[in-house]
Amino acid sequence: MNLLPKDINLETGLTDEEALRRYTEQGPNSLPEGKKQSALSIFISQLKSPLVYILVIAGLVTLFLKDYPDSVVIFLAVLVNTVFGFVQEQKAGKALEALKRLVHPHARVIRGGEIKTIVVEKLVVGDVVLLSQGDKVPADGVVFDVSRFYTSEAILTGESVSVEKKKEDNVYMGTVVSAGTAKMLVLVTGKETEMGKIASSVSKINQDTPLRGQLKKFSKQLSLLVIGLTTVVFVIGLILGESPVEIFTTSVALAVSAIPEGLLVALTVILAIGMQRILSRKGLVRDLVSAETLGGVTTICVDKTGTLTQGKMQVVDVIGDGASIALQATVANDIDDPMLIAAWEWGSGKILDVKLEERNHVRLDSIPFTSDQRFFASLNRWDQEQNVIFVNGSPEVLLERSGIDEGTRVEIHSRIDSLTKEGKRLIGLARKYVPSSVAEVTLEDVKEGLSWIGLLAFTDPVRDDVKESLKLARDAGIRLIVITGDYSNTAMAVLDQLDLKVDPNDVILGSYLEDIREEELKSKLSTLDVMLFARTKPDQKLKIVEILKGMGEVVAMMGDGVNDAPALSQADIGIVVDEASDVAKESADLVLLDSRFSTIVAAVEEGRGIFDNIRKVILYLMCDAFEEIFVVLVSLLFRLPLPISAAQVLWVNLVSDGFPGLALTVDPKALGTMRRKPKSPKENLVAPWMYKLMIIVSFIGGASAFILFYYMVKTTGNIILARSVAFAAIGINSLVYVFSVKTLQDPFWKSNPLKNRWLIGAVLGGVLLQVLPFIWGGLGNFLKVEPLGRYWILVFASSFVMFLAIEVSKWGFRHQLKHNGSHR
Question: Rounded to an integer, what is the distance from CA 790 to the centroid of its chain?
Fold first, then answer.
């Protein structure tokens, strides 16, 4: 308990001047928000990549060597990537802002002896706040002048039962007054409140998603490869007696060729399009990278109520006199709980004029429901001679206090057992008549002498989409863990309707979760396909998430309250419904706009499609890069001039190949996407089978381009013409083998090439752009190429032969690809 301070006049409150002074010192009474990135910082962040660093260095070197065409194209590549990434990041930021509801709640305070209504943000320590039923507590403080005062602290504790508050008890920001009135002295505001501390702790949990970590690893590996290759080439060139300037230029060209300039742009586009596809299926992803992480989910921890079920209670059984129960369900009801709302809706449908009944039986006093008492009592006017105490609550408690014979009592208990085993939730109803002079109800009044009225049985219907969605999730190898604050019997009945069988011995209660050994819990989690945690508290979700992640699982966790925020933030994917608390939303990665479980499954499916397309783009662009590396290295070993310039490399990477690379970002999901197991979290973004395919494609494409270059040098002696042929061959090669890369496990004709019309258009456009420098003199001079004339036949013939060779190679190790679980 907090003792009330002596230096504040609780009758008159603070003066306006003192309140203003404190507000200036303390700041607004609002929850902490993450620091917003400025447009400049978002722009600069696009440059923070090892691949970009190498390109910038290469651009500066070519500028120093006065190789202006190469410098222009290199810096243009950096600019395109930066601007595109900036635009996409800005769009993502606007989507996040759309999530925040712009509300300005108010509070009634006493200032200068007068009752005033002010914006909650203007509250300061020392303010006296007036609270009544339905109000949201605006800050942390201590109550005084209390009259039957109860608050619901579910948003903090997860416990839906109201808590009685007596004089000098603490109350907390965000909790709701469920009954009574009180005055509150504000002791703590803003980020120092209990809710503020939770919001602050959430912001400290900032872990990389699997994709972000793998992209960093891939970028570092590629950077080391580039640095290693250029260093080796430079040293070998010096040993062979090459001119330092010439070999340095060659090394720069090699570094440029090793970097897939379009990769960063393509990855951003894939993730942005993935976000849009998920949004079209009623899921709002808050972060670009999280869109892909969804595809790797191995375990979904889901709440029963509102996701597996409709979250809307319905009366399904009435045991007793229907008219009497309907009257009691309407006039003795605070309508502040899903079951009570359902009871009122049912009861009002049975009574022709609800308002008349309520006017005839005006409430005089009440005792709110508590977990200790397990009942609600309402004293109402009945007639001129007597009043009535309506009592609703636990059937067992009310039966003990009712004057019924033993036979009837046994019969009712038997009916209760039967209903609860069906997963139904119950409210018992009883009443007691008292003289009209009684104006206040006490606990003593309801201890005995009640007249039993009957039972209302409720059920929360299972959503019609859940059964099929669960089958999809299980076919996809995703494990389901149900975490609920409800009773285990109720939850098991719901799961039974969904054809999910849970052994009662495998149900873990929240009380047991506190003491269970971690190794024992891990053992259960590793062997059971479906698990149920019942009667749990929100803070216990964090323990479950941490253990699952320690087992190497990629975890999606659902929650909605403030206290769910740490678990949501710790999970790989935090999921909330649209009605969740602001703090929970701030911690989540996916918002279900329709609160349906099928939306989670749809988001996972889109996430898998995103990952597939990321791999396709990486494979395509890296094959292109390694093909160019092969040509440069082999030419160096044969003591031949550089076969392709840095500007020509960038033209191929950005222009002729750029559009097919972008077209792969919208490639449709493969059939059977949700019939394969989740990829292992330990599996690298670039898997071993991808390196094998890169080597095959790069070797065949690079060899064909080098053979043409060597042939042209030996037969014509024209280095510019030979370089032009090699440049054309490299560009056309990549436009042909994109169809092989698109289908990894099958021949290219097994997957309809026309299914992705964007790709067809991109390839045709790429061919035109690759031919353009040879027919437009100004561009040809810039890239230093000559018209090819009859040599175009050699270029297209080599590309056709290369395509056939790649298809034959795919056939040769297709069995190995399937064994390694690659994607089509």
Answer: 56
